Amino acid sequence: MNHKPSPPNALPSRYSPPAPIFRGVAAGLRRLFLLLAMTASAIAQHHADTVVMFRPGTGPGIGRQPAYFPNNVLGFPDTSARPTVPSVNPAQILSLGLGGEIVLGFRTPIVDRAGADFTVFENAFHYNLGGKQRTFAEPATVAVSRDGVSFVEFPFDSATLVGCAGITPTDGRANPLDPAQSGGDHFDLSDVGMDSVRFIRLRDATAIVINNPNHPFWDPTLTSFDLDAVVAIHAATPNDTNITGTPQPALALRFGTGGEARVTFGIRQEAHVRVAIWNRLGQQVRQLADRRLSAGEHSISLATDSLPLGVWFLSLEEEGRIAATLPFAVAR
After folding, report:
1. Distance from C-alpha of 148 to C-alpha of 316, rounded to nearest angstrom
2. Residue 71: phi, psi to the nearest 5?
3. Is-contact 308 330, C-beta < 8 A?
4. How far apart are CA 63 and CA 162, in angstroms?
5. Collapsing DSSP states into helix, strand and coil, what is residue 292?
6. Are 98 and 206 in contact (CB under 8 A)?
7. What is the CATH number of the domain that holds 176?
8. What is the pLDDT of residues 158-187, one digit of tens each?
9. Would you state the pLDDT for residue 266?
10. Does residue 249 sit within a domain?
11. Helix locations, the chain, DSSP H
12. Looking at the predicted structure, is the pLDDT value of residue 130 above 60?
């Protein structure tokens, strides 16, 4: 799913994207399911892996073509980016457009620990004008959520843009999990009273600058926020639990024969439950369940032959809130 390059230099294993977990089915089956994430014990992943929603704004649409999107905003930042030479590769960046917004999902929750917890990378850059260094900045506001429904926005200063993303250039040569070297704009969950999140919303705020010629970041060539990547500095480990100390709900695929699979999941208390399949553009393609269920483990049949080849996402919602997600791929 992620075709962006890995960061330069060998990183410790905890910094590397997790290797997919392969589960084969018996020889002779027409389809093989590659399970990218089966349980909460999967290796921690440090980058966004899902585009939950994208609403483009006005203006240039760099990187929106299917050949690039959504892979260009998933994974680590462009390794060719430099503080004075930004990435302009549509395979690496996505222009939100003026007033546009995007919501990214993380299979592995971002957790609050000492210091910054995640970094937003954009293609801001430094340049000289009249012997003074200036920064070309196209800002976006940043909000976070545990459930993908209720978001809390980081406070920001419209005059200085402190608290926005898109202000600090990226250095693609550095470890993207080292905020002292990587560049990008860093955010601490404790600043908004959150101890873990799985969704990040970025909303273009370039109008704050472009509509005010007296703004210190004003530039007549500003267009909109160009997203490169969002990286979790502090990703949950297998021993972490969610905010209440309760393990995340289980969601898994179990295979049978004859092109059938079983979606299994558990809920801790009676609730209205929705189970659905989504594509990588954040569009729902199938609803498997939408009803009230008792506490305990449940199972739903999934006809695998009817799914085209590609990467898909299962979602489990309880009372309108996302409780668990599971990426998987279908291949012959």
Report:
1. 12
2. -60, -25
3. yes
4. 26
5. strand
6. yes
7. 2.60.120.260
8. 999 999 999 999 999 999 999 999 999 999
9. 78
10. no
11. 207-210
12. yes
d(CA 77, CA 179): 13
**What is the rounded CA–CA span in Å between residue 269 and residue 264?**
16
Of residues 13 and 182, more confidence is placed in 182
pLDDT single digits (tens) 18-71:
333 223 323 222 222 323 333 333 346 789 988 888 999 998 889 999 899 999
Q: Comparing C-alpha atoms, which of 212, 236, 235, 231 is closest to residue 222?
A: 212
Domain count, the chain: 1
CA 121 to chain CA centroid, Å, is: 12
SS3 143: strand
For residue 144, give its domain range. 44-232
Within 10 angstroms of residue 130's Cβ, the number of other Cβ atoms is 5
Residue owning tokens 């600090």: 168
Average pLDDT over residues 8-15: 36
**Which structure tokens are listed for 276?**
């659905």
- Which tens digits make up the pLDDT trace of 183-223? 999 999 999 999 999 999 999 999 999 999 999 999 999 99
Q: Which of 69-78, 200-209, 315-324 has the lowest mean pLDDT?
A: 315-324
Residue 242 resides in a domain: no
118 burial type by CB count under 10 A (0-12 exposed, 13-18 middle, 19+ buried): buried
What are the structure tokens assigned to 295, written together? 């506490």
- The whole-angstrom separation of Cα 182 and Cα 198 is 22
| DSSP structural state of residue 176 | T
Round to whole Å and give the CA distance between 109 and 105.
Answer: 9
* Residue 318 exposure: Cα atoms within 13 Å on the Cβ side: 20
- Kindly give the pairing relationship between strand 226-232 and strand 118-122: antiparallel
Does residue 83 belong to any structural domain of this protein?
yes
pLDDT band at 8 (very low <50, low <70, confident <90, very high): very low
Q: Does 322 map to a domain? A: no
Q: In angstroms, what is the C-alpha Rg of the chain?
A: 20
The answer on pLDDT for 281 being more than 90 is no
